[in-house]
Amino acid sequence: KLLEREVGILRSLQHPNIIRYYDSFVEDAYLYIVMELVDGSTLLDHLNAIDERGDTMPETRLWHIFCQVCMALRYCHKVKQVVHRDLTPSNIMLADGNTVKLADFGLARQRLGTNSVMESVVGSVLYQCPELIQHEAYSEKADIWRPASRSLGCILYQMATLRPPFEGGNPLVVAARIVEANYPPVPDGRSPLLLSAVGAMLTADPARRPDIDDV
Questions:
Q1: What is the model's pLDDT at position 210?
Q2: Is 99 contained in some domain?
Q3: Where does the Protein kinase domain lie (predicted)?
């Protein structure tokens, strides 16, 4: 059922910033999915390379990547009513180092309607937004915040700082910081727009957190 759901979602997604689905077939009891081949690296690898050089990502490049992720996510949320639920730097490909391709919809779920909420929990505590940690229903705004580098807000923060916003020695410490939206401030030198965007997206209260159109 999970594989059928993933294939169904992949088949429905047609966007220049989402890795393209071509075909799927079963052979010898194995399901094969044929996808677009992306010649490039993940955003996580790119950020790690910048960090190893002791450098920072220029803000013009940061926004170039971030806006493409936003366009892919807006298509998912508003056009297809699909919540990715696994948005990480590892699932964002940089084709030829420049074009963003959103990948890995294995945990994605399709909402039943534009106002529906979901209740199933995915991933470990390290990767959950406050409403999931507190066992509350959630909507597509979970994609706006999914800590430990797993959301739009966390991804923007990590591109600016090269560190995930929520870290700790054990899952309980991380969970407490997530619920309290307690993360180190973005260092000086970044624009007021970046600071306000991070602050808005990492708001613990989902009612006050922007949706993708607001972002």
A1: 86
A2: yes
A3: 1-215
Q: Is 55 exposed, middle or buried (0-12, 13-18, 19+ CB in 10 A)?
A: exposed
Residue from 39, 55, 86, 205 carrying the catalytic annotation = 86
CATH of residue 156's domain is: 1.10.510.10
- Report the pLDDT averaged over residues 183-210: 91
Q: How far apart are CA 120 and CA 214, in angstroms?
A: 25
User: Could you tell me which of 144, 149, 142, 143 has the C-alpha nearest to residue 166?
Assistant: 149
Domain containing residue 145:
39-201
In a domain, 105, yes or no: yes
For CA atoms 121, 17, 144, 88, give the dihedral sign: positive
Q: Is the C-alpha dihedral spanning 74, 5, 112, 199 positive or negative?
A: negative
Residue 76: inside a domain, yes or no?
Answer: yes
Domain count for the chain, please give it. Answer: 1
pLDDT in tens, 95-139: 987 899 998 765 445 544 444 333 344 444 444 555 555 544 444
* pTM, to two decimals: 0.79
Q: Is residue 32 over pLDDT 50?
A: yes
